[in-house]
Amino acid sequence: MKEHKQIKDWGLGLTGPTIIAGPCSAESPEQIEQICIEMKENNVIPSMFRAGIWKPRTRPGSFEGIGEEGLKWMEIVRHHLNIPITVEVGNAAHAEIALRNNVDVVWVGARTTVNPFAVQEIADALKGTDIPVMVKNPMNPDLDLWIGALERFHAVGLTKLAAIHRGFSDAYDKRYRNKPNWSMPMHLKRVWTGMEVINDPSHIVGKRDGILEISQKAMNFGLDGLMIETHHDPDNAWSDAKQQVTPARLKEILDAIDFKKPLESEQPSERLNDLRRAVDHMDDQLLDILQERFAVIDQIGAHKREHHLPVFQSDRWKDVMESRTQKGVAKNLSEKFMKELLYCIHEESVKRQEKQLREADSVKK
Ligand code: PEP
Ligand code: MN
User: Fold this and answer.
1) What enzyme category does the UniProt record give (predicted)?
2) Where are the beta strands (DSSP E) in the chain?
3) pLDDT over 70 for what percent of the chain?
């Protein structure tokens, strides 16, 4: 897989879970200063300070960001907190302005990740520098678009990369502002080894309540940090007022989270090794059973071929699905898991048998 530098190697002195906090939007020098002061007072100094300078609003007419002027106010953050600054860039011009103003880290927003032209334009504008880039997941749950955006930065020589998981828009599920779809960040971590994913509970939940719960879930799943929108006066924020928390609340949230230690940093204990050996053994047994099951499936396939029966028989399928799901649920396996597992096994069975029919046909011809 493509080599990239992890956050600890970005040269910014960052260690442990990466906590990014700051307002949705930079509004005024006074606002930035007040947030910094309250962070200090509450003894909650994040790893990086975030502020939206250009705001990608879904519909025109609301506050679209203060623009370059806001970047000058980041000096206030350096003065009070002395931490790296990160802002969102949505096009090449933003990227150039961010570079000119010594922004430490840039991020690409969800509405930009969906657009390969815009991502490429930003990558080209940043080429030749070694600025770290964080890529938010696209609005829609398309893992390739997310990976593709990271690859575009990698391809121009930017290797300090990380991803941000901010959830996915969903027309039907209104429990969240953006549905977390936890399998997506996990899958990104599987296919791009070592890629760190920072969770953004603020844009997932869309309101203050629930940020702690999502943050804890992210840590339980093994994600690598949090981006939490923080404002000294959330109710009067110029954007995303409902979801921002005060520095005092940020402190409470961070104190309440049970942060997990990265496994690699620990010698796995004997107990963990034993349990893993047990799982390895059971996986071997599962594979043996599957092998036997498919051998029988092949015999059924031969029978269907002989008797000119189609491979897919909906009554049988319905019965298998219902009875196995019920049995699985009784064994404390979720219905969703049972259905996915059975679809997967059945799909493979049908494909094998159809292949047998085709091979038999070609022998006849
Ligand atoms: C933001 O971080 O304020 C933002 C606009 O996020 P997203 O791109 O996730 O919508
Ligand atoms: Mn926001």
Assistant:
1) isomerase
2) 18-22, 48-50, 85-88, 105-108, 133-136, 161-165, 197-199, 225-229
3) 98
